[in-house]
Amino acid sequence: MGTLELLRAADIGAGDEVIVPAFGNVEATEAVVLAGALPVFADIDPVTYCLDPGSVAAAVNPRTAAMIVVHRFGRPADLGPLHTLGGKHGLLVLEQTELDAVFDGIAQRRAHAALLDARLTGVLTPAGCAGHTYQQYVVRVPGNGRPDRDAFARTLRARGVACRVPVQTPVHRLPRYRRDLPLPETERAADETLAVPVDAGLGPRDMRRVISACNALGGLLQPA
């Protein structure tokens, strides 16, 4: 059963609010709107990229009926604090995985991720955890925001590395759902994150190309 069907089955609709992450996955927001409820955006944890319990707690009010927890990049959210919060306030806690999740080749992706963890320099590598499938291997290119990350990405692509920006625009900045909210971790992640390839089909030569291309940059690039 999809998120929309679960919301409707729980009789969540007009007059209700549902807390959702603003970092990616517009589908969760769309499901809330289609159910007739109001999406309320919360910030993310900077390590997991999933809903931050503190931000969720700050968003709860008498109209709050549920939260939608999205597991990001193959890393499961830390559900314990969110379920505790949901139990305290009587909220439905729904889970959603990314729609393009790929479940084959997990062992190989984990092996590629371990290699990158050990060899990459000039970027901040993701924190591992039990159950991480590395659907995407997301690094951070910190600095002065988007120009640094985008310049880094352009250079990697020029060197044959098929990297991608995982979240171009947070949901709360999209015209249809725009809200002027202080979501600093969401904004920072949108400016700094970059997914580099760890696909199961990549061979040793491909992984060496990823590593050498990243490390040859020697850290951050200045915008052109």
From TrEMBL:
SUPFAM superfamilies documented for this protein: PLP-dependent transferases
GO biological processes: polysaccharide biosynthetic process
Gene3D superfamilies: Aspartate Aminotransferase, domain 1 (3.90.1150.10), Type I PLP-dependent aspartate aminotransferase-like (Major domain) (3.40.640.10)
Matching InterPro entries: DegT/StrS_aminotransferase, PyrdxlP-dep_Trfase, PyrdxlP-dep_Trfase_major, PyrdxlP-dep_Trfase_small
A single GO molecular function term of this UniProt record: transaminase activity
Protein name per UniProt: DegT/DnrJ/EryC1/StrS aminotransferase
Organism: Streptomyces sulfonofaciens
